[in-house]
Task: structure prediction
Amino acid sequence: MSPIHPALRQLQLEAAARRRQWIGRRTEQGFLALAWIALGLTLTLAFVAPLADGLRLAPEHPLLALAFGGGLGAFLLHGAARHDHGRLAPAWLAALPVSPAQIADAQRRSRGRRRLELAGLYAALPPLGLIGGLPASTLPGLLLLAAGAWALAALLSLALPSRLAGSSSASLSLPIATVAPLSGAARPDDGPLPTLRLWQRRVAHGQLRRWLAWGWLLPVGILLPIGSGLMGLIGLGLAGLGLSASLATLAQTQALLADAHRLLASQPLSAHRRRDAASLAPWRTLLLAALAGGVGLALLGLPWPMAVGFGLILASASSYRLALSLRYPDQPGRQRRHALLAGALGLLLLREVSPLALLLAPLAAGWQWRQAGR
Amino acid sequence: MTPRLSIEALDLRFGSSTVLSGITLTVAAGELVALTGANGSGKSSLLRCIAGLWPASAGRIRIDGLDPLQDALAARRRFGLAVAPELLPPLLSPRECLALFAEARACPEALAPALERAEALRMSAWLDTPVAACSLGTRQKLGILLGLLGDPPLLLLDEPVNGLDPPAAWALKQLLAERAHAGAAVLLATHAIGLAERHATRVLLLHHGHLRRDWDREALAVLRADPERSLEAELVAAMGG
Result:
């Protein structure tokens, strides 16, 4: 039996180190896990309910539902395979003599793990949907989608193993770096640090190309015509666009601010000048995304006050998260903890105290904003 | 006259691990000081403390009389720290990186001289190439140019000749000597014994977080004049090798 692929061994050792770290801080990690679960359930409640009509009608169009589920499954598996490919070909191991048997073994393990994860996800969907407020009548639709997704993903992973589950043997052992040509130039009217803005634009363009993550919207979106009209489809598109754009902008800004902080750490650059230079563009995108999200939900049939409330929450939450990235650029763990606790507390206040607690969200974001400039 | 850099009884600890202990040091205008020592002896840590990137556990640092933590902005205008190649943004070109630093230091007029220095370091051909496509040596040159931008009175460099081709290394040594001659103080951490022996005005040995030896201008002149002795042999002996 050939030894395990060195990249897999690396992943195993890293996972063991993370487990030890987790156990060492189990109280804090356990608390965070509970907060995640609370947040997940609340978000499920908010986002799954609008799909109820489509899901209830899905069993009447079984082939369509299976196909959409399959598309979703194939998309998820493809994304996971791309991710695995990156993880299985770290540059520092590239020159090691890895045998074809080791590569095949690594691909097999990677595929198996991903199938298991998908199966777990689909198994969790129906109970999550029910907990999230979906009526029991939608259960057959959910199961149909899950079955389609699982079947097509498994079929595709068997039929196209090299493309879907980690690319070819050669590229697993020899990663090739590609460098995109430089685009655009700094504009003098781009705030206090125009070249930082140029850097942000280039990262944003790269992120846009990776926004294929929107693919998950397609199968869900096509479900809607089963239950609602064109406005519903546009609404879901806008809501998904708003959410995706917010998440992508926040991820991109967080990574860029960490890099910029390390690069410019020894420069005479005050916190408020750095904040003003780095925040304008992402903040504009986040506000537009929140607007799109709110309008989208209104078109989906949500009452206008609730849609406005959602837009306000999204704008405040993403501004809060952005301010955290500006305040603690080199401490991603601290950013996550703050954001998670603030999110859980906010949702708790909103649900248990009063919808007026919503007004606290912009205030909290503004406070973090001020702190980020100190 | 206020020294460019003065350090008194500096300690740096991480938990129970002591990285630097009791470092006392002054660097005057016109000095080119080479900081040597074994791997892990604390050279880079000392530079990071001086730059205010890591707060010292005890002791005092002054740059032109300014505290790099209390008067961070004013102190940071008084020094330049060469940037490590791995920190450079892959999506910008070297010219854009220089522009970014000129903006951050609020001295746009420093860009033109920096581009002239790029010519001296033989990297003009790479100025408009993405950093991601530049060789390690080119990124190293860019990191040095970023540290030199705006001609700060104190220069801090960590292994500056790593990865440089011989003509660029030679040009860098001339450049540092010129800056020292013009009144700047240069403190560089290095394992390049040739650079320390021939170009430094002073050599310090850092050993297990302590300053163990200090070869001043006179001691170095004696070493240079005696073909039977070398800085390398003295360093190895002082490190217990």
